[in-house]
Amino acid sequence: MFEWKKEYETKVDKIDEQHKKLFEIGNRLYELIKNDLVIDKYDKIMDIIVELKNYTVFHFQFEENYMMEIGYKKFLSHKVQHDDFIKKFNDIDFKKIDNSQDKYMLELMNFIYEWIDGHILGTDMQYVQK
């Protein structure tokens, strides 16, 4: 589901590495959801969600520090997008995951993919065009 494309490259090596790591974690979650051999995926889903959230927080902090270092003028609006994304993680309905693991997680995965795709190609590319 999460396929790295050349268009995602910011030319900031550390940020590109971190974006690729986010894709890798997202793909592990997607593969777990699509695996019909695992009946109860809740614990594994939760482990990957926690890892994805923690790595996302780490990445956003790194990216925000980078933007401040380069004096990026749209830093605050960019940070608001990061904060909104983390809020989505904090608002995950764990009962829905437990009751309807695949359906709820596919909806969440689609949100994550669309957000990452749009954010990297749209918002992130603005600070690297300096």
Automatic annotation (TrEMBL):
Q: Which InterPro entries match?
A: Haemerythrin_Fe_BS, Hemerythrin, Hemerythrin-like, Hemerythrin-like_sf, Hemerythrin_metal-bd
| Keyword Iron in annotation | yes
Query: Start and end of every Hemerythrin-like domain?
Result: 11-128
The UniProt keyword set, sorted, is:
Iron, Metal-binding
Any keyword Metal-binding?
yes
Q: Which Gene3D superfamilies match?
A: Hemerythrin-like
Q: Could you tell me which Pfam families the record lists for this protein?
A: Hemerythrin
Q: Which superkingdom? A: Bacteria
UniProt lists the family membership as follows:
Belongs to the hemerythrin family.
UniProt-recorded name of the protein: Bacteriohemerythrin
What is the species of this protein? Clostridium omnivorum
- Lineage, highest ranks first: Bacteria, Bacillati, Bacillota, Clostridia, Eubacteriales
